Amino acid sequence: MELWIDADDTLWENNVFFERAFAEFADYLAHSCYSREEVRALLDEIEHVNNRIHGYGSANFTRNLEQCFERHSERGVSAEDRRHIRQLGEELLQHPLHLIEGVEETLAYLSLRHELLLCTKGNHAEQQSKIDRSGLVRHFRHVRIVREKDAGTYRGLAAERGVTDGACWMIGNSPKSDINAALEAGLGAVYVPHRHTWHLEHEPVPEGHPRLVVLERFSELQRLF
User: Fold this and answer.
1) Residue 8: helix, strand or coil by DSSP?
2) pLDDT in tens, the chain (225 residues)
3) Which CATH architecture has domain 15-94?
4) In the chain, what are the domain boundaries?
5) Angle at Cα 96 formed by Cα 91 and Cα 98, nearest 5°?
6) Model-level pTM?
7) Which residue, 179, 188, 198, 215, has most beta carbons within 10 Å?
């Protein structure tokens, strides 16, 4: 059996650092009328457009913050403003990589029993850096860094791997990219929720789906597989 496993916020902490960067940005913008939730909504509008063009990762996130500041700053935009915002993006690349509890031993267990494939989306160099720093690559037979994780991507990967629907499961924390897209492609899916999952990845997951399993912790995969 093949197990395809997401990386960000499934194997290691990720979005919490983006949330901290956004909080610093909202404080720096200090808009007199918009609440933090309203600033988030304004940023979401920009991200929906730019993510389709530029993909994901800290560089695109920084671009989105800069555009949001340009559109909504009440004091204009100075060179210092741009430097400050870009520094937020640079710090995202430098934060330490924290593995989620139970990941190391669970991967070691699963890798002896199944073929593991690491499937993550985002900027290739940035994702590869996190994979390298994690020290987890030894547990995986294959690694795929893709631009988008949708049903078409999963179907293409299944065709490439020559796996049948019943012999492949996608495991991750993002309802939109990891769970619903995999189910749409005919794969099984294991949903491991994370409290800091990026809000643009939130979607309802189907109740009672025969190929969907919901776990509380990554370590519980040891009793499932």
Assistant:
1) strand
2) 999 999 999 999 999 999 999 999 999 999 999 999 999 999 999 999 999 889 899 999 999 999 999 999 998 899 999 999 999 989 998 888 999 999 999 999 999 999 999 999 999 999 999 999 999 999 999 999 999 999 999 999 999 999 876 789 999 999 999 999 999 999 999 999 999 999 999 999 999 999 999 999 999 999 999
3) Orthogonal Bundle (1.10)
4) 2-12+98-224, 15-94
5) 135
6) 0.94
7) 179
Q: Which two tokens stand for residue 170?
A: 């996608």
Tell me the one-letter amino acid at 166: G
Q: How far apart are CA 9 and CA 4, in angstroms?
A: 15
Which of 3.80.30.20, 3.30.230.80, 3.40.50.1000, 3.40.50.300 would CATH assign to domain 2-12+98-224? 3.40.50.1000
Q: Which two tokens stand for residue 181?
A: 């897209």
Q: Which of 161, 150, 140, 225 is nearest to 190 (CA)?
A: 225
**115 vs 1: CA distance, rounded Å:** 6
